[in-house]
Write a structure and sequence with these properties.
The complex is a heterodimer of chains A (about 325) and B (about 500). Chain A is mainly alpha-helical. Helix content of chain A is about 75%, strand content about 0%. The longest helix of chain A is centred in the C-terminal third of the chain and has 28 residues. In chain B, the strands form five sheets. Chain B has a six-stranded mixed sheet, with helices on both faces. Chain B has a six-stranded mixed sheet with strand order 17-18-19-15-20-21, sandwiched between helices. A four-stranded antiparallel sheet of chain B has the order 2-1-4-5, with helices on one face. The chains are: A mainly alpha (about 325), B alpha/beta (about 500).
Chain lengths: ~325, ~500
């Protein structure tokens, strides 16, 4: 009983209610919604968005923003695709290269932001263009078809119906939450996002942590690129346009403050789930692409309003 | 021993001029001076937050030239800042050891952190504070104690306190003083910056008084009389205590009935008449600020209400704009965060409340007139308000509301962080307002202040108004006793 009460009062309630509502609505509208297939489809679609959202959570917590994640993801997946299909890399080394590319973009974001005190909004906006352009250069502006060599990443495991990418994403979400709440790095991130000057006056140099956060976001975008290529068995330089906005929406749905200092990785993952369930549910009931976008936008804003209303209630108790 | 020789520092103007200072082991050294005398700058130089333009420092015979806070802390020089610098989203323990979190392979060692934190907290008397509690939910007094515990937790050779007792209750001050004495006994050098002469007299052994960036007196504290200290600080005789003048009271101006706000304010009723100064006293956390905020509509009360002037029916304000339209004003506790637009001009800050009602061409003369009436010492009206001293900033806040000609004025801690001379000016101003028929409510943690200026004092205890004292019948003891009453059952 106590455990139930705790969950009901916890920060997860708002998002759980939204998820249950979505299930009820789509379950009533479509008789094919409550199937294992829907579940596995959603699960196998979200790994790239989920890992990007983990990185984005950290970036927002230190009070920054990373607009380049979609482009960096596309660059990483382009490199992976070309390396596998044309340069005949092994899968392992191709994956390493994709992640390294993400790391490079991320650390560049971090170093420029911190070193020259440029707002991360501007720096990552620049990186959004640079990485996208690089993705076109790498692929020669064509989609690179990879074929079977990428299957170990994206193809569903026998019997489970879930892809290795999904399982890896779940592990990373949990690891991200632990890193945020239990490690020195995570605690510094929260502290910096709350009051950077106070951190500095406590005798800590906040700059390495800030750079590391952007590097982390880059690495996770790179990994997202691997998952993305794995899902489609292809590397499309046009991939993941606008993904940065979905990731920010998911993280904010999860209650992370855009002002920094407050957030949770697991809740960001719930935000990803809400967006994914909404998308696939709308597709099942036959909504058109424009209608899907209108509804998704409205639900995001409504969910955030509901959540802030709920938490102000809790505070007043 | 810490020795400072011929320290000079200029920002726009000369702030410190050839300052010599010696901190000797076994002594608490008090640093005094009016606001703007340079004492905070001097403290910040010692703490390594600012570097001096010229001059030399020596710590135990070794040249001491800190360039960063980390460097000075490495040498054991710590400062307890006046403004709270805790991170609200982290736990108490994490705040205490932020720069040296105990960890294994990058993971915070929570058990070790909790036990270290308990040790540090017990040293400041916070025995039952959970180290895992979020700082967010702590009152400002407790936060300050945590801040002090944070400085004490590190191995310290020099500790600088900047107005450490501003938000502490009397028992908390006692605990702090015990700590300071223990540290002095252990050979820590203490520099103590404060406005409060009474408490400095109790704790300090030696005093250095600054005026306009120069040392005017450096002397054993017990050889200095209060008058001599004040004279040295301001360079002229000042009224030591604003003498209370009996005024004729008019009709009721503010009636508060059964006001309730959660558990912070419970069923509070009182009345203030025109020409009256009504004080609100109580321990930290007794609900003074919450009560003022509920009256003013900054937070909407759950029950009860407020009637202004002749109104027979009470109402509940839902937003400050409603209260302001009805003729009420509030000067909040934290003028920097809740009152002023710090980087904006003095003029804009003054006329902020009347931008709509005053024609654009009249903005400047209106503002300048109000500033002159309150004798705000300033450069041009376009100067950023941030550059004013605390006392003059407070006058700007008062000027803002005078322009709206409010009948009822609420003041929350009107003299916090203001020097002696400016404090007397604020008291004078409150008296003048009352004489002109305003009804005034002053909430303050400084009982002497309320005793000096109020006609009546209401005592809040655990959110309830437990007693209202008249000038004839009050005593320091009876008011203090009342302040604890709500916590006894």
């Amino acid at each position: 009983m106590k455990a139930v009460l705790r969950v009901l009062r916890s920060d997860y309630l708002g998002l759980l209610v939204v998820l249950i509502l979505l299930f009820l609505v789509f379950g009533t509208l479509s008789n094919r919604f409550f199937t294992l297939r829907t579940f596995t489809t959603v699960a196998n679609q979200i790994p790239d968005l989920a890992v990007v959202a983990v990185g984005m959570t950290f970036v927002l917590i230190v009070g920054g923003i990373d607009l380049s994640v979609g482009s960096v993801l596309a660059l990483a997946s382009a490199l992976l695709g070309v390396a596998l299909s044309e340069w005949s890399f092994s899968l392992g080394s191709a994956v390493m290269m994709a992640i390294a590319a993400g790391f490079l973009c991320g650390i560049l974001n971090g170093v420029v932001t911190v070193g020259w005190s440029v707002p991360s909004f501007i720096v990552t906006l620049g990186m959004l263009e640079i990485a996208r352009g690089a993705a076109y250069l790498v692929t020669g502006s064509r989609t690179a078809y990879i074929g079977a060599s990428i299957e170990p990443v994206g193809a569903p495991l026998l019997g489970l119906g879930l892809s290795p990418a999904f399982l890896a994403a779940i592990v990373l979400v949990i690891a991200g939450q632990i890193a945020l709440s239990r490690t020195v790095f995570g605690r510094y991130a929260v502290a910096i996002g709350t009051n950077e000057e106070a951190v500095r006056l406590s005798g800590i140099d906040p700059r390495p942590t800030r750079i590391a956060v952007f590097a982390l976001a880059g690495v996770l975008s790179g990994l997202g690129g691997v998952f993305h290529a794995g899902r489609l068995a292809a590397a499309d330089p046009n991939a993941a346009v606008g993904l940065e906005l979905s990731a920010i929406a998911a993280v904010v749905l999860g209650g992370t403050s855009l002002m920094g200092g407050r957030g949770s990785v697991v809740r960001s993952f719930f935000g990803v789930l809400v967006i994914a369930v909404l998308q696939s549910g709308l597709a099942q009931v036959g909504a058109s692409e424009p209608a899907k976008r209108v509804v998704t936008g409205a639900v995001i804003v409504a969910a955030v309003i509901a959540d802030s209303y709920r938490s102000s209630r809790l505070r007043n108790d | 021993m810490l020795v400072l020789r011929a320290i000079r520092k200029s920002f726009a103007a000369r702030v410190l001029d050839d300052v010599d200072l010696e901190l000797r082991p076994g002594e608490v050294h008090a640093l005094l001076g009016a606001n703007g005398a340079g004492k905070t700058t001097l403290a910040r130089i010692v703490a390594g937050l600012v570097s001096a333009d010229s001059g030399a420092m020596e710590l135990d015979g070794v040249p001491y030239l800190p360039r960063t806070k980390a460097e000075s802390e490495g040498l054991g020089v710590h400062m307890v800042p006046q403004e709270l610098n805790l991170i609200p989203n982290l736990s108490v323990g994490e705040n205490l050891f932020l720069s040296s979190l105990p960890s294994r392979k990058g993971f915070v060692d929570r058990r070790e952190l909790a036990s270290r934190a308990r040790g540090a907290l017990s040293r400041v008397g916070l025995l039952d504070l959970d180290p895992a509690a979020s700082v967010d939910g702590l009152g400002i007094g407790v936060q300050q104690q945590v801040e002090i515990a944070k400085a004490l937790a590190k191995s310290a050779r020099v500790l600088i306190f900047d107005e450490p007792t501003a938000a502490l209750t009397d028992p908390q001050v006692e605990t702090l003083f015990e700590n300071i004495r223990r540290l002095v006994g252990a050979g820590v050098l203490i520099l103590y910056v404060s406005h409060r002469l009474e408490e400095m007299r109790r704790i300090a052994d030696r005093a250095t008084i600054l005026r306009d960036g120069k040392v005017v007196v450096s002397e054993v504290f017990s050889r200095l009389s209060a008058d001599a200290i004040v004279r040295a600080m301001v360079g002229r005789e000042v009224e030591r205590e604003s003498k209370h003048q009996r005024r004729s009271l008019g009709k009721a101006a503010l009636r508060v009935e059964g006001l309730t706000l959660g558990r912070r304010v419970e069923n509070v009723s009182f009345e203030v008449r025109r020409g009256e100064i009504f004080g609100l006293s109580g321990l930290i956390g007794s609900g003074r600020t919450s009560l003022l905020r509920a009256i003013f509509g900054a937070e909407t009360a759950d029950a009860g209400g407020v009637a202004l002037g002749e109104e027979s029916v009470t109402r509940r304000f839902r937003a400050p704009i409603d209260a302001a339209r009805a003729g009420m004003a509030m000067v909040p506790e934290d003028r920097k965060r809740q009152g002023l637009l710090l980087p904006r001009s003095i003029l804009l800050n003054t006329i902020l409340g009347v931008l709509r009602s005053v024609r654009r061409k009249a903005w400047r003369p209106t503002g300048v007139e109000a500033l002159d009436r309150l004798q705000v010492q300033r450069g041009s009206p376009e100067q950023p308000v941030r550059e004013l001293s605390g006392g003059n900033q407070q006058k700007v806040m008062i000027a803002r509301w005078l322009l709206r000609d409010s009948a009822v004025l609420l003041f929350d801690e009107p003299t916090r962080g203001i020097d002696v001379a400016a404090r007397a000016a604020v008291y004078h101003l409150l008296n003048e307002l009352a004489e002109n028929g305003k009804a005034i409510v002053v909430a303050s943690s400084d009982l002497d202040e309320l005793l000096a200026i109020c006609d009546r004092i209401g005592v809040l205890s655990a959110g309830r108004l437990v007693e209202v004292f008249e000038r004839e019948s009050w005593s320091r003891e009876s008011i203090t006793a009342a302040a604890f009453r709500g916590y006894l059952w």
